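queue> pop job 88
queue> type: inverse folding (structure -> sequence)
queue> payload:
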């Protein structure tokens, strides 16, 4: 029987981590039965799949791969090893041939090597997050401060690492330059460009002296361990980190400082007066809604990713305050509560119920948008009870400054924030007593709940929602409406 000749294939992918190009390639290679040893993977400027052998009009079907394999592929394509695509092709081919749990077999030589590569990429990401330092580089867009940083990653991690910095530093413009590529943030979006040079980044700025002083003040000479320091902070990163300039002097002085610490006579601990400490803490609390909003605006989101904190909106002394769950995608982008689809539905229902939105106060239990990225879309994720508890103090102070007569809880998360208890809306709906609060309460659904209903059920549910709002308007109009609890 004549042996079948396998035609050699050359796959050309974009430089760096071309995950999309690799996926498209294996979707053609695997169903066609092309063995990994017959494929040469080349990184170049003009990606082209099978230019001589397979027509572009024949798109490959998606491969049903186990989650462990997909995660391994997404990490390993960022590795700098030129053999990474061939190794991943071998893995996927074996999985497609029936070894569905191959990625979990750590003793397999191929799997072992790929896991080592994934760990190397993970370490590189960690180092970039920890050791990248921005330097001031003049004014950016619309007078915003602009910063630049230089970093030399071991692997192709820039696109994966950049969202960490846009989430952590959303309020100023910045650029990160690497030898292979660059990332740029303008307060609205990330974009990527060609690589840069270290000399394109300022050598130093005025902030670095303070950073170095802080590092020196926290350096513990009694715990000097050069091997551990080099393992955690390799010297290749030192020339981009201002605080490392102080390390040689700190190490030289460590022995003398330890001797002084040992020779120093022990001192009795200073007796602290709790009453004074509590009074000092109370004096630092915001004394107005504007001061509270400044604190909220300056605080980092508990779950990274939000563009900005979304503050409450409406007049102090509003008769009704509406408390929702958390900002959505549009609220996060615009910085205002209830401006997305659910907010538009709420505005319509308020008009039908005879409530002037501009005279009410609208806010959320959680002040930052929590989401899951799916391609270019940001899908809302419900906050956990712990996240609601984290923001509760802000909500309580906010409502204390606004001093409404009635608070309407829109949905179960708002009820949890106001009462500390998880109660089904079907059981709690209607007038409510928020124990210990200086305002009356009413519980109803969140308008986003109505948007999720089938078209056939939505009219009836919307009418019930408007009826709840009319009831809120009637309650706040009653002269005898007073504190609950």
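queue> result:
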């Amino acid at each position: 029987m004549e042996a079948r000749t396998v035609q050699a294939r050359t796959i050309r992918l974009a430089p760096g981590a071309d995950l999309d190009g690799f996926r498209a390639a294996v979707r053609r290679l695997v169903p066609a039965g092309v063995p990994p040893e017959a494929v040469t993977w080349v990184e170049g400027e003009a990606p082209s799949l099978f230019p001589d052998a397979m027509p572009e009009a024949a798109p490959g079907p998606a491969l049903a791969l186990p989650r462990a394999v997909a995660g391994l592929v997404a990490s390993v394509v960022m590795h700098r090893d030129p053999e990474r695509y061939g190794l991943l092709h071998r893995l996927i081919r074996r999985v497609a041939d029936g070894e569905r749990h191959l990625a979990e077999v750590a003793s397999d030589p191929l799997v072992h090597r790929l896991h080592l590569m994934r760990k190397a990429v993970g370490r590189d990401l960690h180092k970039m997050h920890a050791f990248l330092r921005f330097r001031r580089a003049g004014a950016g867009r619309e007078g915003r401060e602009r910063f630049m940083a230089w970093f030399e990653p071991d692997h192709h991690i820039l696109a994966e690492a950049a969202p960490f910095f846009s989430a952590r530093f959303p309020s100023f413009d910045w650029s990160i330059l690497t030898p292979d590529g660059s990332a740029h943030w303008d307060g609205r979006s990330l974009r990527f460009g060609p690589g840069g040079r270290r000399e394109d980044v300022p050598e130093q700025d005025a902030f670095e002296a303070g950073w170095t002083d802080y590092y020196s003040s926290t350096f513990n000479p009694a715990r000097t361990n050069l091997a551990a320091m080099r393992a955690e902070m390799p010297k290749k990163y030192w020339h981009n980190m201002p605080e490392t300039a102080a390390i040689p002097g700190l190490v030289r002085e460590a022995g003398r400082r330890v001797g002084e610490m040992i020779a120093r006579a022990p001192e009795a601990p200073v007796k602290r007066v709790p009453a004074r400490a509590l009074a000092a803490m109370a004096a630092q609390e915001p004394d107005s809604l504007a001061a509270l909003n400044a604190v909220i605006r300056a605080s980092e989101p508990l779950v990274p990713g939000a563009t900005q904190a979304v503050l409450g909106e409406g007049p102090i002394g509003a008769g009704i305050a509406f408390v929702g769950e958390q900002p959505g995608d549009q609220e996060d982008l615009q910085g205002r509560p209830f401006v997305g689809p659910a907010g538009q539905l709420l505005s319509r229902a308020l008009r039908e119920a005879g409530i002037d939105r501009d005279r009410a106060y609208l806010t959320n239990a959680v002040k930052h948008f929590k989401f899951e990225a799916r391609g270019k879309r940001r899908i809302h994720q419900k906050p956990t009870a712990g996240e609601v508890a984290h923001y509760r103090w802000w909500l309580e102070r906010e409502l204390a400054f606004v001093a409404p007569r009635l608070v309407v809880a829109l949905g179960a998360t708002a009820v949890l924030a106001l009462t500390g208890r998880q109660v089904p809306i079907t059981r709690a709906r209607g007038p409510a007593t928020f124990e210990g609060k200086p305002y009356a309460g009413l519980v109803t659904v969140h308008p986003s709940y109505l948007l999720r209903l089938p078209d056939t059920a939505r009219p009836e549910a919307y009418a019930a929602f408007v009826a709840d709002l009319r009831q809120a308007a009637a309650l706040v109009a009653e002269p005898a409406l007073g504190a609950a609890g």
